[in-house]
Amino acid sequence: MERKDRIDAFGAVSLIVFSALLGLNQVVIKLVNDGLQPVFSAGLRSLGALVLLYLWMRVFGSGARIEKGTFWGGLGAGTLFGLEFICLFVALDLTSVARASVIFYSMPVWLALMAHALIPGDRLTARKSFGLVLAFVGVAWAILDRSDGAEGSLAGDLLALAAAVCWAGIAIFARATPFQRVEPVMQLFWQVTVSAVLLLAVSPLFGPFIRDFQPLHAAGLAFQILVIATGAFLFWLWLLKIYPASGVASFSFLSPLFGVGFGWLILGETVGPGLWAALALVCLGLILINRAPRGRRPADASGRKGTHRGVS
Questions:
Q1: Given CA atoms 66, 248, 98, 114 in this order, what sign does their dihedral have?
Q2: Residue 4 lies inside a defined structural domain of this protein
Q3: Which residues pair with 210 in a beta bridge?
Q4: Is 0.85 topped by the overall pTM?
Q5: Strand residues in 29-98 grouped as ranges (E)
Q6: Close Cβ partners of 306 (under 8 Å, ≥ 6 residues apart)
Q7: Domain enclosing residue 30, as ranges
Q8: pLDDT tens per residue across span 38-97
Q9: What angle do CA 103, 169, 156 make, to 5 degrees?
Q10: CA dihedral 142, 217, 46, 248 (to 10 degrees)
Q11: Which residue, of 148, 165, 195, 219, is most buried by count of CB atoms within 10 Å of its CB?
Q12: Considering its fold, how many domains does the chain have in total?
């Protein structure tokens, strides 16, 4: 498919489906946590994605190669990837999907702050700053609001926030270090490889591996490996080759919407007025942060000038 200069109907539908999958994945993680210890489950997911990505690269790419000068960047990004999922999977064990989604998908807020400090030319504009303030207030509101009672855990909320910060750190590695020279598929390969080792190594510290493992949990784990950690990310990379990265990133506000919606619909979570207000502020802030300035040229086909996103 040829390169496009704007998001058309196919791109919009594809990005909506992609965002819905990310939102649904939060529910799946929480369900699988009932059968498997969270960190062990995250390690199995990375290990499965590692095998599938390696096979995909062997068949359709040039195989796994470490480019000169990128080892430490890959190791750093992979370590942050592992820490991100320790925080996220444990967070979803402690707090609701709705709360975790609002907080975790605030990642562009922390990325904008890091980029302002670390990446020359990626400064905060007045519009971005206003969006950042709105989203920051929304995140703070989500953490402090206890109107949904026992479904909200302060420890879980803070871990979701830590996961979002780790995710932003991965994006900085992909934009401000020699790791940016690595092809996006290889970047993901680095992340799942290092995280698989890290997560499985530390998982004994978080309790017994098996809780009450049932076929439903096996199906959920397979969904995470096949659909999310492998298929969805490859689909995301394909979309970045076709559409402007700024346009693709502008759909990021949909993920917390779907996360909250699926938490309410599938798990029956209570979503109080305070959390809806926090969600609205975060989504509006993300729109302002991701909106491309007028007259700005779109990012190249690799999407490296846009927001680098993994799949969570």
A1: positive
A2: no
A3: 36
A4: yes
A5: none
A6: 240, 244, 245, 246, 248, 249, 299
A7: 9-290
A8: 999 999 999 999 999 999 888 887 666 777 888 888 899 999 999 999 999 999 999 999
A9: 30
A10: -50
A11: 195
A12: 1
